[in-house]
Amino acid sequence: MAHPSDANRQPPYLRGLNDPQREAVLTTDGPVLIIAGAGTGKTAALTARLAHLIFTKKAWPSEILSVTFTNKAAREMRERVGRLVGDAVEGMPWLGTFHAIAAKMLRRHAELVGLQSNFTILDTDDQLRLLKQLIRAADIDEKRFPTRSLAGLIDQWKNKGLVPADIDAGESERYANGRGGELYEQYQTRLRALNACDFGDLLLHM
Fold this sequence. Notes:
Rossmann fold; 4 strands; 10 helices; two-stranded parallel sheet; elongated; Arc Repressor Mutant, subunit A
């Protein structure tokens, strides 16, 4: 029988968690997969798990990689972890969105992909302006083949991990009667010349 004071002796980050959540937090040997619906406490379990790794010295804060999809989720994660571990959260540089973490890694190893560490990240407007220049130089009818269509196609290719050399004739046909691959290669060449990348590159270069 559990002693009444057991609940008071347990680490603060375990309080309020149910049994499956506790199991996810306390299992530190091997991977843990949590499958649950929205609002069921996945984030609570994850933040408690991070706190557990830090408090039990299974990992230093700087050794933990915690990735989210959105900036909002990253902020919430950092705030929750901060409430559990205090100032230790400031020593967690690898807690953020996929793109933020990738950008940080890329700046450390930019030379491996032909960039300098002070590279620029193009926003959507900059990307469209650059692609429009290439389309006009190639004498392609922008009304028939809109710039945004090419931008979307290149983004799809990058999300699939495809570099220009991977684009076959079938894929290239998806823009301007087979010129998609050619323009993708020109775009990447221009980006390197400008010491720049777009959001798709942040993940592609990883």
